[in-house]
Amino acid sequence: MTNVDDSIVWHEPYLYARRLGTDGADREKFRIMAEQGMKAKGVGGNFDAIIGMAKMLPFGYVGSEVSYQWIKEQLQADAPGKKLIFNKDMVEGIVDKYDAIPEGFRHVFLLRHPLKVFPSFKNMAKNNAPPGMMEGVDLRKLPGTGFMPAGYFYKELFDLYEYLKDSKPIVICTDDLQKNPEGVMKAYCKEIGLQYTENILNWSDDGDAIMQKWMIAKEAAVMLPSTSIHKNAFGSTGFGEPSELPDKAEMDEDIVEVVDKCMPYYEKMHKDRLQVE
What we know:
277 residues; alpha/beta; 4-stranded parallel sheet; 39% helix; 9% strand
């Protein structure tokens, strides 16, 4: 890309992994889950209606009509007047699609401790799934269901990290970022060649109107404001303090087992994390 610094940030769960429409089977699975969720919340159950509403938005692209190749081309296109192209995505969206990774970008991995991820993920799944769907959920049974990839996110994150090693990817520990946002952001800006400014640490509470400044799927722009996760993000004005690491002895058996499987990948990446001077 011409005269533009580029950065892609990869992370584990919490946002919809695959852009809508990149694969027919995934799109149909997502449509069924979305309709069930909408019916349970009393907001109707016609996902096609959501698509119709989305297409009326004056910003964004129609995610159900694009491909991985189209997304790659958009990210690689020249961007006159832009200093930075920043893309954030979940790692499972690119599994088996490495050929769709755009060229010329510096890759960044946001890394959280598995003991913080999986208790929260389990609660999120229960709170956002239709009644009865996730009752008594066992995380060990989720891979392959559409809720979780085979490697519980961390293997997929590590595999992508290894694949991109020659491009010198940056690993940022989210605890480090929350404890010392100024130090970590200065180090990050230095690594990618971006001028650091104080306003990086704080931002205005624009609510979901901020989406109008993004290149975002219209369907996502319709649905995201209804989730508690995104409401918190849209209403934030800066970095919060990190939470304490939960006591593993108090965790459910399935969480402990999944955490243990993920720790080797986490530890390998954590030792390579961005260091603050």
